Automatic annotation (TrEMBL):
GO terms for molecular function: 3'-5' DNA helicase activity; ATP binding; DNA binding. This is Primosomal protein N' (Replication factor Y)-superfamily II helicase-like protein. GO terms for biological process: DNA recombination; DNA replication initiation; double-strand break repair. InterPro entries: P-loop_NTPase, PriA_3primeBD_sf. Keywords: ATP-binding, DNA-binding, Helicase, Hydrolase, Nucleotide-binding. It comes from Aminomonas paucivorans DSM 12260.
Amino acid sequence: MGFVCSPEEGASIPPGRCKPLLEVVDPRPTIPPDLWHLVAWGGRQFGVPGGNLLELLFPRWVLEGEALCPWGAETLEPPGSLEPRCVLRCPDRSRWEEYRRILEEEVSPTLLLFPERIQGECFAASLEGEERQFRWVLWPSRARDQRLLWQEAREGRWDLVIGSQGAATLPLRGLRRVILDDESSEAWRPLRHPRISLRSLVGERCRVRRGAFFLGARVPSSKVFLRASKDPEGRTTPGKRLVFVDLHSLKTVPEEAGVPRSPVSPTLRRRTEEVLRQGGNALWVLDRKGFAGALLCGECGHSWACPACGVPVVWYRREDRLRCPSCGSLQDVPERCPRCGGGWIEARRPGLESLFDEARRFFGARGGGSVEDASLPLHAKERAARRGRLARGGVLLLGTRGALEICDQAPVGLIGWVEADGESLREEHDARFRAYRLLWESCWRGIDADSRIVVVQSRMAGKGWQGGLSRGWSSFWRQELEERRQLRLPPYGVLVQVEAPPEERKRIQAALDEAGASWMEQEGSDVLWIREEQPARVPALLGRFLPPKRPAQLHPRITLWTD
Ligand SMILES: [Zn+2]
Ligand SMILES: [Zn+2]
């Protein structure tokens, strides 16, 4: 399958380089001009070959040549400049209220995009039961239904499509407006290559269509903050609902004989107890899978690592195996230390599995109530059953960060972060913001969020960047951006992540040196980081390593971080 982008008359291609056409599937343009524009624009902007972009942007069956009704002639007016409008409200309900107001005020073809499907479902539920002036539909989850909606959207059957990533490039006829919720979410960037920010792509789509672009957030990204730094919402705080516990203080809790010291502080236990007694539900978050994140010989200090990657292995007690978090390879749980032969093996860095023992002890002491694993994926039926149990209350949920979505389905009266430091200690330039976002989300996401207690157990306990949790996101960003400005990190420059084999990397490094660009190798990986103050200079720096004649899979993989 191929697409004809533009006819080229008199092009001279040497004989033998050209393959004959077998069949013309559709002589009329099937893809609207704004989406074609994105393919070319994305290629220039992000150094991603057109074929890869087509795969990212369109469902497989479009690329396999299924006949679609023709799009017809549509020419775009000359594009304007992009002026996004911000909807910054901490509680989800107030943002949604604003979205409904925007939608009612003027009916025009709109895409409303949420980073997680569940949020789209909840918003759709909030539209039900009342007569609306616009014809709306929820982006379906089954491929067959999506196909149908693609056709209907092209035919102009809908004024509003509520969806997530998959709906971002839906060819909605006459599209005039996009509302993108939770704009600072990492979910707008696909995990697989090409890792292009869908937020940027949708913004460009609005620009060429001269459509309105609304960005909603509980906490804005750095770019949006710079546009809205005066917004009074930036001083909204969770107030007394937010409780910090210093993890250092746990060391002073007396240890019971034979039982490892609990990672759950007396404060978190007491607060949980109160919420459950009043018929609420509580969620303990420990963002580390398995039983323990490290295994250590108690006699000689030997620590278990993956033989291939050298990273510490995770002990999964339920499967009774050690697993490498990087390559996934398995090892048996050792009985003796291979270095000194000692048999005293310590589990360090407790993981989610270890919390179950903790929760059972907790309930053993108070009796009644139930414990649920919130990290397991559930089918719709099981989900509904759990919603029923949560509606009755008294449930203690245990999960990793993914469990925060339960707040959309049922009231959660308390969220306790058993260890809140992990995310902020990562190496990425935005590690602190990612950590902040998760805790802020815990304070504001979902049903009855404004009466939820959030207990944060941390070694910083409200100091440093965590101060921004008690003072609001304006305060967080001011402090964070001061540092990034000095280091010329995004949004004050662009970080380019280049993955390429060693030989290619050497050539790229030489070219960068010649151009006077600053770069850095990431140890133990195929990754090269380039720090560049002017994003516009990136294509000139790297363009020659992306020759169009070379197969796309041999190109270096480039990811831009502009924030
Ligand atoms: Zn040993
Ligand atoms: Zn490994």
